[in-house]
Structure formats: structure tokens, C-alpha cells
Amino acid sequence: MVVLAACAAVAPANAQDTDAARFTLEKSETGFVRLDRKTGAVTLCQEKDGTLTCRMGADERAAYEDELERLEKRVEALEQKVAGQPLTDGSKAMPTDEEVERSIGIMERFMRSFFGLVEEFKQREEGDTAGKT
Hints:
By secondary structure, this protein is of the alpha+beta class. The chain contains three helices and four strands, in the order H-E-E-E-E-H-H. It is elongated, with a radius of gyration of 35 Å. Residues 54-81 form a coiled coil.
């Protein structure tokens, strides 16, 4: 019964692992020993105040620290690579005043042409309606 409670306490910590039979817990003199059947790693666990606390063994800790160091170097290299490059979409942060003025000019010409067409259509429609009466 104690082993079942211990397994339930460890399960949330390993929720990402879909293989339920991956870990086994065995009672020891000082608490529990957790065996990872996939990797063979052994972790020492102790029960305090109804909570099972597991700590990494020396080998696991060394592997964990090596992985952290590798990832830190990778992040550093990526940051250096990205540091001087433009944004991936090639855009600048803000357009220059000249670019804004040019864009406004283009929009103004577009709007004048559009409303000119609307007026032309109105005049045609009024002409067609006047000719029918």
C-alpha cells in the first residue's frame, strides 16, 4: 500500500512520460529507491510530511549539468548570430518620414481616383434615369 501511494506521488512529476511502467519504487532503509527502467538511472527518495521527495544521483546531476551547459552555449551562439541581422521579414522598426509621405501621396491619389469613379457612376445613373422619364 505504501508503494502505491509513493507511485502516485511520483506520477505527477513524470506526467510527460506516457509509459506508466517506466519507473519502479522499492522501499529501502532510508526511504525509497526509484529505478528508471528505460535509462537505468537510480534516484533516492524520502518521504517527509506525506510528500515523496526524490533527488538526483551524482550521475544524473552531472548529465543534467552537462545538458544545461550545452544548451547555454547553443543559446549564446544563436544570440550572437541574430545580434547584427535585420528582422527575418526584412522590415525596419519604423518607416522614415519620406516613406510615410510617399505612402500618404499614393493613398491620396488612389482615393481621388476612386471617388472620381464613384462620381462618374452617379452621373451616368442620373443620366439613365432622366432619359427614361
